[in-house]
Every structure is written in structure tokens, then in C-alpha cells.
Amino acid sequence: MHYKKKKKNTNLSRKNLLTIGAAVFFGIAIITIPLVTVANWRIKDPRRQVQNQAKLITNIELKDEYQKGNLSYFDLKKQLFNADNTKKTGIDYSQFFDFYQKNNTSLPINFATDYGWNRYKLDVFDLKPLDQEQSFEIYYRLVYQLPDDKKAISDLLTQKVIWNYLPDYSLANFANFSSSKLEKLRAYTNKEFSLSTKKELTKLVKLEDFEKQVNWAINNNEARKIINKYFNLEEIIAEILNNKEFSYLDESGIWNPRYQIELVRDQILGQDFLAQTGQKGIYKLTFYAAFSPNFAKKIAADLNKSSKFHFGINIDLNNLFLDKTVAENIKITEFSEDDYYPQINFEKNLEAEINGWDFLNYYNNQIFATQNEREDFLKKLIAKIVRTPLLKKVEFENKLSGVDYAKFLKYLKLDIKLDANSTKLAFKNNQIVAKIFGKIILRNAENQIVAEKNFSQTIEHLNRLGQNDAELVKQIKQTKFEFKPETRKKIANQKGAPKSEILALLNANKFDKLKNILENGDYYGYEFNEDRLKLLVDNSQLPNVEEFAKLSVVPEKMSEGIINLWNKSFKTNQEVSTFLSLLAKRDISFVAKYWYDLLNKFKLIDPKTQWPENLDQNSLFKHLSQIKIQPPEKKAVSLTSDFWLFSLNNDYLISPDYLNNSFYLHSNLKNTLELIKTESAFSTRDFVEHIKELAKSIKPKDFIQEKGKNPITNLSEFLVAFYSLIYSKDQGLLAESLGQNLDYKIQFELEPISLNVAVSQEKTNPNNNLRLKYWYKIGSVDQNGNLIQVIYQTKKETLDLVVNENNKLLSEDVEKLNEIATNFPSADQIIFLKKEDYTQLVDSIKQVIKTENTPVKIDNEIKNLPFSQFFENNYPDYGFYIIKTSKNLESSKPEVTKPVAARPVAAKVAAKPSAAKPEQQEIHQSEEIPGVLTNTISQLGNQIRHNFDLYVYKKDQPQIHSSKPVRVIIIESSESLFALK
Hints:
- This protein has 981 residues and is an alpha+beta fold.
- The chain has 6 domains: 31-167, no CATH class; 173-316, no CATH class; 324-478, no CATH class; 487-534 and 739-801, no CATH class; 540-668 and 680-689, no CATH class; 821-972, no CATH class.
- Strands 31, 32, 33, 34, 35 and 36 form a 6-stranded mixed beta sheet that branches. Strands 3, 4, 5 and 6 form a 4-stranded antiparallel beta sheet that branches. Strands 9, 10, 11 and 12 form a 4-stranded antiparallel beta sheet that branches.
- The termini are far apart.
- The chain crosses the membrane at residues 20-41.
């Protein structure tokens, strides 16, 4: 009979107490699972809640260690009380007792960890010894800490606790010992897993799968076997049962265990062997301890042989099982020399030599219909250099160190996917190498991705790429990087610089300083076209459609058949070009879907023609011709026409001579469009190659004659127009960052001349002018920006320089102001003004100008214009001057470089107003201010345009100003666009 049911009978004999005591089941537990759902504490009466919780305690027992055979009641009393029966101070009396609740009489309450109890503190208010009964009367209460240092305290409760002698072979003692051992349950190590066919590794199995396996076991034996596959359960149980302290000698002198341990389902819910607790990742296993059959027979005369003592342990399964962090323990090692194909000894042929530049240029200029095609192509190129597959370089480390690779693959599938769009160059071991990027992907048996990890790998010995493939070498060498160094004279009459200064810079290799002088309008006013090279060093990333669309706007109405998409993330025209180049480099299907999604965001796609679900990549263009483009609402005026030009960030307004970031359907592409409709034998890639060839004949100014000729009606035509822009620039697709620590540097040298030529020049060139050669080197640079190794050099071009010993170089202060003027993003700072507002601006400028060729502050007169507010926000210590000349010396005064774009400034008008059509193309001289405001006519948009030139000065040094002007475009329109105040 259970002891707790008879504990109130204090007249039981000592013998009966001993007999019953062996069957007492006051459990020893590490942590218990939630037993009671505690009410929400946001109630009006927290004390009532504490009171109800305290009433759940139904039984109190002395802990086992105070009831052992070598400790009597009076020994225990001496620990708690003085000789006069007064309590000793400094003792936590609650630590001597186990408290049980009525819903779980097997396991004591753990007030530190048990869900539902860990919010309370148990306060033993008083304790009295009852010597005649060998028991203690305990007075206790529950305390809950409330906000503001207040407490909710239950009523004082009392119970009588009997000291009970426990023999050495008590189940309670054994259960307590077993709990402490089982608490150390551990998962198998990598080595144990690799050396055994019966052990599993927790890191390769999801926790929920393990939990399901255990709890779906038919019986406790099967559940034990499953747990033992992952944890050393049976090892610990064997260690416990073989402990001589819990064993006995039988008649034959052999040690046998007194007890047995069995796994059982949770005692509260009665369903799971592995029960969840209220804490994440903490699970409970419940066992019972019982006498072994042989020992039960031996003591049957004294004890209940069928007694069982339940106890539970907590196991922390956090960070033990498979999750996405498993990939952190996998790496791909660098290729060793043995992994590469050996160098073939043959006579070195420089023309056939392939370096990193050749490799990257060739690879980037290939056209692919899909991303998979691009990845396969990259793998084939790598396989011509390296004979060891990437998968062979996989290694396990840290938590997977020592795991057998073959056994690992029985649980998880390991794959490698290359990011074929991110291949770069790098500098390693004093040589340029290719750097590839990708992901290690882990999948489970259901082919679901469970973890991923990014990786990079370098490919050395790129010169071995074409060792056994002469045709490949030929293709690589034929893929030229088309870049011809170009300059443009921005002023007609160059003043020149002192010859000695130029030669000194040449001899000191100060080429950047020399380039600044050549660009400066006070000396030469050359503009170096380096746009193509800048793409190779700018570390730009293609934004996803969602990000791009959020920062973009398309006017609701279309004028002149032009759709202009405005994106405020672009700071310069060069950034717009970079965006288009990055997009063009991707596979064709990606480009098509990108444009579709973007146009669809702005309702430019006919909703009746959606993206096809099952798209045949080989007939991509034909499918895209079914997706109709729906232009914005047309204006009800004669200026409107069918959509024919797509422009980004007002590119069509920047220059009357070219379209840099706008595209249209050129007439020479009509044949391509017909082939798309009729020719099924052409692949998607073939069509783009065809566009590439035709685009070479497109000239920068062709858009003037092509204006409105060929409407863009569907996505196929849109894509053809896009690719024609990309290839008409004749820059190929190597148009993004080459890699980290790679840069380009301009080079200069005096053109070498023979003695006879020198004598001839002395006669024809008495001023002894200079002829310079300039070109660019591309390669790896050190931390100071100096070239370490050159991988590519452009062709050399010539500059004829006049020299002028009297035109001294500008001071550093002026150079700094020129730098601000050059870098000020003016292309997107277009000013829209009504005719009367423009006239008012002209009048206000005339009022402040007193004399010609004298700098005049203009900050107050332009403070309501958006570009002025932008300048003030970004350059608060600087302002603007204007300088009126005696007459229009536009051809002889310095100009800014190509306007660059900036983030837009908030304005009173939500959308940019439409340009007004001039009454006549004649521009009246009276509307101009020489050197300040000059008039021009745009080829597109039918607007009246004015160039507004300003010079930068520093407020604390007003005596100096930039020699280069900032040029802002003013367009007369139907509405004026002013800055917000």
C-alpha cells in the first residue's frame, strides 16, 4: 500500500513504518514539465491567484538524504534546532523538504525551473520539532513579486512531516543516484558515429524527426533503442546497474544488480516518451526504478516487490540536431598544385598566352538564354584548368570534424551551385587569378534545402585554359575588349601650361596630377572619356525589381511617345549606365523577366497578356511578342504619338547629340523582328547575337531620324531595343567590377621622335609645343593605389599640347573648388520654369551684375531653385558666383564634364512638368546673359532650354573661385518646379 495514503496514522509501529517506507515514491527529478496552467497575472486580485496556487501543494516530505540509515531523527534535528528547541539562524529550511502537487505526486516541485512554479518563492515561515512522533510541523506560504516592490503572499499553511528511516536498498536512493547519472546523457561523437554502423549523429537529423521517431515507438523497448541510436543511454544504464553500491552477492558469489530501470511515457499526459517542457529545446524523459526480479524475491518478506519509483530528467537538445548552422561546419579547400592539369612544355607563344583578363573578358561576353546555361559554361571552363571536381575539395570542420564523408551522404545530399554572375579576378601568390563564388547546398531525403553556405574559390594557372584546345584560344583572343582612349576638347582656344611643369610631372610619374591639369579649362580643357573603365572598378550590384521599383516613378502621361522612368537612387549618369550593363550581362530569360516585372509594377503591361507559366526558352522572343506593352495615358494634344523611346532619368534631355541611357527600335532591326515571328530554327541566343551584329551600325545621332518611326508595342520589341542600345555602345558585356583591389591608371609619355623629325619640328614649331602619348593600364593595386601587376593595356593615343610659360598652375585651393564643380551632380538638377518665372530670374540676375568679368554672389537669387537647395545641403560651406562676359564666349570658356545625376530634391510639384513647345525655333539674344545664361534647343521634347553656368566659392575664402563652372539646365515648361521651404 502506498505510504502517502497511510501517513496520517501516526500510531503505526516502527516495523510497519520500515516496511512501508521502502515503497515510498517521493520522486527525485531534475526538472519537471508544466503541470498547471497558471492564470494570467493581469488580474485585479493577484493575492487570490497566489492563494489558489499554494493550495495545489498537497504533500511535503523530507528529502531522501536526511532519512538514510546512518542519520537518525535526532541527528537531523541537531542540524535544524538549538538545544533549547529554538531554530538555528542562517538556514534555508525549504532545502530540507520536497513539495508535491496533487496532479503529480511522483515528482517534487522544482521552484527554480518548473513552468507554473518558477514565478513563485517558497517561504518556510516556521518549523517545530515533534520529538515523540519523530516528525516536524512546517508552516509555509507562497510569495510572488509584483511590480513596484510589492508582493502577493498566500495565507500561512501547515503540514506535519514524518521522519522515515530508509534502508540502504531504498528505491528513492537508487532513483536519486540514477537521475544524477542520466542527467549526463550525451549525443555520440563524430568519431563514434564514423566507427559504428549502429550509431547515428544528431547533427544529421532534425529534432522534430528524432522526436517523432521516439514518440511513435510501439513500446518502451523500441523507444529506448531509438534514443540509444543517438545517445549513450544504455551505456549509462549499464554503468548504474553495475555499480556495486547497488548490487548484491548471490549464493554463487556473483554480483547482481538490485534494481532495474525502465523508460515510460510521461506521467502527466501519458502520451510521449520524449515530452516537451515549457522551455525551448528542453525535453523530459521519465523512468521508473524497480527491484530486479531476483532481488525482489530475496527481500519479499520485508518489502513490496512490485514497488516502482518514478523519476524524470531533463535533457537539453538545443544546438544538437540538424539546422541551418550545419553548413557552417563545411568548407571548400583551395585547389592544390596537384589538382591542376600539368603545364605542357612547349615553346611559349605570347599570342596564344591566356591571362586573367582574357579569361574574364571572354566569359563575360558570352550570351546565355538561361542561368543554368551560364553556370554549365563556367564549369566547363574551370574543368579545362582543374581536373579535381569542386565536390572533392569539400571538408568537414568544427562540429563535423572527423565525420565519414560516405556516411554523411546517406543522410544529406551535398551539392555545389556556382554564382555564375559573380566571377571576378583577384591577386594571389603574385599572379592574377580567377575568383569564383557559389553556395554549398545541403538537402534532406525529401530533397528539401536544409542549409546553405556561401563560398569562394580561386582558380590559378589560367594560362592552361587552352593547352589542348586551340579553337578555344582562338575564340578567347577574338573576343576583344573594345576601348579606345578618347578625349574631347571642351574649349576651342587652349591657354596651355608651362612646359617645365608638364615635364616635371612626367618625370615624377605624377600622372593623376598631370591629368587634372589637362582637364582644367584654365589650361587645356580636355575631357577624358573613361566611362567604360569606371564600370570595371565600381562595385555595383543589380538591385532586385522590388527595390528598384520602390525608388522609381513613371509619369502618368506620355509626351512625344517617350516613357521616362525616374529612379532616385542613381546619383550619376554613369550609375544608370552601370545598371543597364549589369542587367544586360545576366541571362536573357532573366533580363526579360526583370523588365516584365518592372514594367508591370507601373501598369505598362496589358493585364490581358501575362507572363506565360510554361515558357519555352528556345522561343523566348516569340512568346514575349504576345505580351503587350500598354503605354501611359496619352495627352490629348497633337504632340503625342505612339510609344517609341524608353529613357531613364531624363537621359533624352541631357544631350542633343546622343542617347546614352535611352533605347528605341532602329529601322535596321526590322528584319530581326520579322525573324522572331517566322523563324523557329533560331534560338534565343541566336537572336541576341543577330541584334549584336546589327547594333554595330547604329550611330549616336540616328535617334533624330528614327524619332517615332517604329512604335514599341510588345515586350519582345522592347527587349530588342534594349539589347540594341547595349551593343550599339560597342563596349561588350565586361562592364562591372573586375574584382577587389583591381583598378585602372592613366599613363603618359612624351612621343619619341627621331633627330630629323626634331630638327623639322624646330622649324615648324618654334614654340616647342609638346606631343604626349596617353593610355591606360589595368591591374592589381596595393593599399596606396599603386599598380602591382598589369593585366591589360589599352591602345595609345596622342595629345598635342600648346605650352605657355606665363600661364602658371592654379593653387590647391582653386583645384579643390574645381573638384567640387566637376563632381556636382547637375544632370538630375534640371530646372523647370514657366516663361514668366524664367524672365524674372533673368531680371534678378541682371540687377546684381555691376560689371563684366567680375564674380558676383548669386546665392540669394537662386535659393528657391531645387539644385541650390541640394548644393546647400551637401556643401554648406560653399556658394555660387556668376561671371558675365563681354560677349558670348561659349567656344572659348571652360565647360563642365558630362552632367552627372543626383538624388532628387523635394519640390512643390509632384511630377516633373511637361516641356512647353516654343512658338518658334529662333532664340532671342535678349533672353541671354553672356557667360551666365545661354540658349539651346533640344532634339527631343520640343523644349526651350537654357544653360546656366555658375562658379563655386568657399564662404571663408570669397576672394577665390573655381575656374570650372557648374552647368545646370533650365527648361521652359507649363509649370515651375521650386524647392520646398
